[in-house]
Design brief:
The chain has 162 residues and is mainly alpha-helical. The chain is built from seven helices and two strands, in the order αααββαααα. The chain has one domain: Arc Repressor Mutant, subunit A (Orthogonal Bundle), CATH 1.10.10.10. Strands 1-2 form a two-stranded antiparallel ribbon. Keywords: DNA-binding. It comes from Paraperlucidibaca baekdonensis. Pfam families: Rrf2.
């Protein structure tokens, strides 16, 4: 199965946004700091997320991004779809040209698996993820590390780029 960095980062950034929504619009620099994703990559992702009406941008001082609707109405599969990703278990990208231009023996099996995974992700909302204790614990740790870095009490982390 293949889910690229783009899809993973988009879900991570949207979950960060949902976790920090109570403080108002979230700045991409803050998401970048907490999640170790470069700001330029986040800008590319959020342009697609905005185009798909999953986030809204807020301009001006204190601006940033916010969810376009409640977290219980945004699903992981929607996020992955918004950034032009797919969850694909086939080796042919679903094209059916797996074996020298023809469909391979197990093509339908892997296509069915891909559909099942998409259906699974289409039933997990951001709110369901936010409510998980382990997600809350990681979010608290990340926020504390971010606070320490801003206070000069912890080293900067290396930002991942895609």
């Amino acid at each position: 199965m293949r889910l690229t960095t783009k899809g993973r980062y988009a879900v991570t950034a949207m979950l960060d946004l949902a976790l920090n929504a109570q403080h108002g619009p979230v700045n991409l620099n803050d998401i970048s700091d907490r999640q170790s994703i470069s700001v330029s990559y986040l800008e590319q992702l959020f342009a697609k997320l905005r185009k798909s009406a999953l986030v809204l941008s807020v301009r001006g001082p204190g601006g940033g991004y916010q969810l376009a609707r409640a977290a219980d109405g945004i699903y992981v599969a929607q996020i992955i779809d918004a950034v032009d990703e797919s969850v694909d278990a086939t080796r042919c990208g679903g094209q059916g040209d797996c074996q020298q231009g023809a469909t391979c023996l197990t093509h339908e099996l892997w296509t069915d698996l891909s559909q099942q995974i998409h259906h699974f992700l289409d039933n997990i909302s951001l709110q369901a993820l936010v409510a998980r204790r382990e997600v809350q614990a990681v979010s608290i740790r990340q926020s504390e590390q971010q606070r320490l870095r801003h206070d000069g009490l912890a080293p900067d982390t290396h930002l991942a780029t895609a």
